[in-house]
Amino acid sequence: MKISVVTATYHCADTIGDCLGSVAGQSLAEREHIVIDGASTDGTLEVLRAHEAGLAALVSEPDDGIYSGLNKGLARASGDAVGLLHGDDVYADTQVLARVADAFADPAVEAVYGDLVYVAKDDLGRVIRYWRAGAFRPGRLRRGWMPPHPTLFLRRSVYERFGLFDTRYQIAADYDLMLRVLSQLSGRVVYLPQVLVRMRVGGASNRSLRQVVRKSWEDYRALRANGVGGVGALAWKNLSKVPQLFVRQ
User: Fold this and answer.
1) Which one, of 76, 63, 4, lies nearest residue 33 by Cα?
2) Interatomic CA distance for residues 236 and 240, integer angstroms
C-alpha cells in the first residue's frame, strides 16, 4: 500500500518546514510527497528546494488558488490512496500513514478518516479546538456532518470516478468534493477514532466576516448541487462546531 500526500503551498515559509518534516518522519516507507507551490515569493520556495530530495515532485508556478494547486498534485499522485496536508499543518505522530495504510488493507475500504485538533499558530502543542468526527453514516450528511478534510484519505480510484476539486468554489471545494464522494460511495468508509492531524488556526475560510459569509454561501451551493440538503443542513453544520471548543483529548 503506497500513500501519496499532496500539499499545496503559498507564502508559508514559517510553517512549511514543519509540514515537510512531518511527512518525512512517517514510519510508512511506501509513501510519496507531492508539493505544488503557487509561485511564493516569501521564502517558501527556498525551504522547499532545500528539501526537494525527499519529494516525489515539486512544482512552483502561478495558479488559480489552493484547489487548482491540489488538482495539479492529485494528477501527479501514483499512490494507491491519497491524502492532503496543508502547508500549515502536521501529522499528529509518526504512525499516522501506517495506520491509514492498515485500514486500506481491506480492498473494500475506499475512504479512511480520523479526528483533528486545531492548535495555536505558534505552539503546535496548544489545542484550541478538538474535532471528534465520529463514525460515518450517509444520513449524517443531511445534518451538516463532514469528516475533517485534512484527515480524509481516498483511494486514487475514487478521484478517477468522482473527479477532482471544482474550482468554481473558492473556499468550499473541499466540502463539495466530500459531499459528492460520500453521498455516492459504495465501498466502506473507515473512521479511526484518534487525532491524525494538527491544524494551525487561521485558515482562509474564517479570516474575516466576509470570508465566513462567502463560505456559508458556498457550503449551501455545495449542499444543493449534491442533493444532500439546504438551509437546515447548513445550520446544523455550523452549530456542530460549537462542541469542538469544549471537547478535549
Assistant:
1) 4
2) 6
Q: Is 68 helix (H, G, I), strand (E, B) or coil?
A: helix
Largest CA distance in the chain: 48
Q: What is the b/e burial string over 96-113, where b = at least 16 CB atoms within 10 angstroms of the residue's CB?
A: bbbbbbebbeeeebbbbb
Report the domain count for the chain: 1
* Domain limits for position 50: 3-245
Is the CB of residue 147 less than 8 Å from the CB of residue 135?
A: no
Residue 62 belongs to a domain with what CATH number?
3.90.550.10
> pLDDT by residue (tens digit) across 27-63?
999 999 999 999 999 999 999 999 999 999 999 999 9
Single-letter amino acid, residue 109: V
How many other CB atoms are there within 10 angstroms of residue 182's CB atom? 24
Are 176 and 97 in contact by the 8 Å Cβ rule? The answer is: no
* Residues 116 and 197: beta-carbon distance below 8 Å: yes
* Per-residue model confidence as pLDDT tens digits over 192-231: 999 999 999 975 545 556 777 888 889 889 989 998 877 8
Element (H, E) at 84: strand 81-84
Residue 107 contacts by C-beta under 8 Å, 6 or more apart in sequence? none
* The model's pTM: 0.91
> Looking up cell 491509514, which residue turns up?
100
Give the C-alpha separation, 68 to 160, whole Å.
16
| Residue 61 neighbours by CB distance under 10 Å | 10
- Report residue 75: phi and psi, to 5°: -65, -25
CA distances from 1 to 158, 231, 239 (A): 15, 40, 37
